[in-house]
Amino acid sequence: MSADEALATLAKALAHPARIRILRLLLATPGCIGGDIVGAVGLAQSTVSEHLRILKTAGVITGEIDGPRVCYALNPEALSLLADFVASLKSPETDACCIPKPKAPS
Amino acid sequence: MSADEALATLAKALAHPARIRILRLLLATPGCIGGDIVGAVGLAQSTVSEHLRILKTAGVITGEIDGPRVCYALNPEALSLLADFVASLKSPETDACCIPKPKAPS
DNA sequence: TTCGACTATCGTCGATTTACGATTTGACGC
DNA sequence: GCGTCAAATCGTAAATCGACGATAGTCGAA
């Protein structure tokens, strides 16, 4: 998969309000979280499960079986590519802040 | 529009390889660029125009009429929201860099 | 004015996405 | 074994997206 496609895939994973909300929930939750997600987003269980599957396929989150439920957590590394790209768009020449990486990705 | 929807809209604007490619082209082009985009992405003119419209609607790029052609340029400010969100996902607790804005935009 | 180059818009088609209820799977306690 | 709860999967219908050709509009040059 080309870099463009990889970026598009990552962006597509974030391209839905329900998934943004899920990521916010994971971000705000220290440990694990399972079926509470369903109640929080206000969609049907099957729909939420589908969104979780999309996020998991994109590598943005990880699902770990923890007894009777599943423990979801963020996978920050997967977003490095997108974060770097967006940052490069934001500051094409003037790095107003955090310049550590010029444009490292390979 | 809620913050979640705004983020999803921004992400959706990036959720296509052709649009990623267009943004790369704009990033790599110092000044203006017009119909050269069509040749570079290898799609029909109408299709490219549609992608440009989507990017423009999302506020990611700006189109300025410059005589017979249109001058497209990146609009870094529009990406601040997305960049901030992705960065917060990348470093949920350890802000290795630039923490200035907790969640400023309204 | 007429021509040619460039861009935007319209209409349409097929593919993909989204959402839901219903069903199935898996893990636990009885 | 059996029932229960949580999660995933299946099947389906509505909505959206992506691509294209054809068309219309705009500008500068001849």
From TrEMBL, chains A, B:
<keyword id="KW-0804">Transcription</keyword>
<dbReference type="InterPro" id="IPR011991">
    <property type="entry name" value="ArsR-like_HTH"/>
</dbReference>
<dbReference type="InterPro" id="IPR051081">
    <property type="entry name" value="HTH_MetalResp_TranReg"/>
</dbReference>
<dbReference type="Pfam" id="PF01022">
    <property type="entry name" value="HTH_5"/>
</dbReference>
<dbReference type="InterPro" id="IPR001845">
    <property type="entry name" value="HTH_ArsR_DNA-bd_dom"/>
</dbReference>
<keyword id="KW-0805">Transcription regulation</keyword>
<feature type="domain" description="HTH arsR-type">
    <location>
        <begin position="1"/>
        <end position="93"/>
    </location>
</feature>
<dbReference type="InterPro" id="IPR036390">
    <property type="entry name" value="WH_DNA-bd_sf"/>
</dbReference>
<protein>
    <submittedName>
        <fullName>ArsR family transcriptional regulator</fullName>
    </submittedName>
</protein>
<dbReference type="GO" id="GO:0003677">
    <property type="term" value="F:DNA binding"/>
</dbReference>
<keyword id="KW-0238">DNA-binding</keyword>
<dbReference type="GO" id="GO:0003700">
    <property type="term" value="F:DNA-binding transcription factor activity"/>
</dbReference>
<dbReference type="InterPro" id="IPR036388">
    <property type="entry name" value="WH-like_DNA-bd_sf"/>
</dbReference>
